[in-house]
Write the structure tokens for this entry.
Amino acid sequence: MNSLTEAQIRASFINASKRERTQALLPEDFAEIDWSAREFLGWRDRKLPQVGYVVCELDAEIVGIMLRQAEARARTRPQCAWCEDVTLPNDVAFYVAKRAGAAGRNGDTIGIRVCEDFECPVNVRRLPPIPYPGFDREAGRQQRITVLGEHVRAFVGEVLGCA
Ligand SMILES: [Zn+2]
């Protein structure tokens, strides 16, 4: 994705109040983010442990959503709905996002199970395991990168109410 400024990110949240947008803490390593190696930016708020944020580009617009972790860690380790990583390098958490606009204000939410700290862009860039001899691992990696972007945009679009 293209690099974003702090102001662009704060202005992008579609399901957060003005106060929440102002109070959101950006990632500690914000200045060092390699934007070219990610389909979205996802992070947890350092001051609000249950709160996470995801920002991506959707139809050339920058769209950010705020999520809330809805339950304690699952006993089993389910797969992340976005990166579908099978090597399970990190935990997966259940997050809930308020829908944008009136629907969200009326309590309408959407849930999703994704990597706890939104590690998906890193996960899909690791070379995948070889499922059969002759498997093209580089093509497999590219495919996962593409699919991750589609999954994230589909979810953000759903929060926005255009799905
Ligand atoms: Zn993931």
Q: What stands out?
A: The chain has a mean pLDDT of 93.
